[in-house]
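Today's session is about reading a structure prediction critically. Students often jump straight to the picture, but the first step is always the sequence itself: look for stretches that repeat, for charged clusters, for runs of hydrophobic residues. Only then move on to the predicted structure, which in these notes is written as discrete structure tokens rather than atom positions. Here is the chain we will use throughout the hour.
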Amino acid sequence: MLYAEKLKYVFYVIFHPADGFWDLKREKRGSLSAALTFVALTVLTLGIEKLNTAFLFNENRISEVNVMVDVITVLLVFTLWCVANWCTTSLMDGKGRMKDIFTAIGYALFPIILIRLPLVLVSFCITAEEGAFYYIFGFIAYAWTAILIFMGTMMTHEYSLGKTVFTCIITVLGMGIILFIGLLFFNVISEIIVFVSTIYKEVRFR
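Below is the predicted structure for this chain, in token form.
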């Protein structure tokens, strides 16, 4: 399949998640490059949303928005979920490889792009009284994505409903553990650097 066709296949995935995610892995209807494109577009969408949503619905102070922090946050959450899910499912007879997990989750993010990006324009065309529709559709984007992540996990690893629920809970816990270990590691490294730097200065200036 051509790259453009693999991008287009996302519309089948989001409306027919069971068959879509199954074919995504078994029939090679998608690709990691297309999935990473959707991740990049999701990051771009959330950045545009924070900077360009009409002031009536924008809860962010434009002067305080740090786009790089948002980029790193989205990429970190995406990577943590995929890594934690792979670690978890490797111990629970999961059928998905790391590549399969990254691909499925990348495709699952598409509702955020599909709904929240147009909402930026819509925010300039509605009044405060009509704001309920804005927030409802914004919520639908995240809820739809969550359902797709769940279905993607189920189809990728060939799990039952109950096992998928359990796996998702363990994955979230795993994300917290990985993040804690990572922060602890960087803290230890920074302490070592400070210690070595102090010793060097003591030796040099004596």
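Discussion point for the tutorial: Residues 182 and 188 are 10 Å apart (CA to CA).
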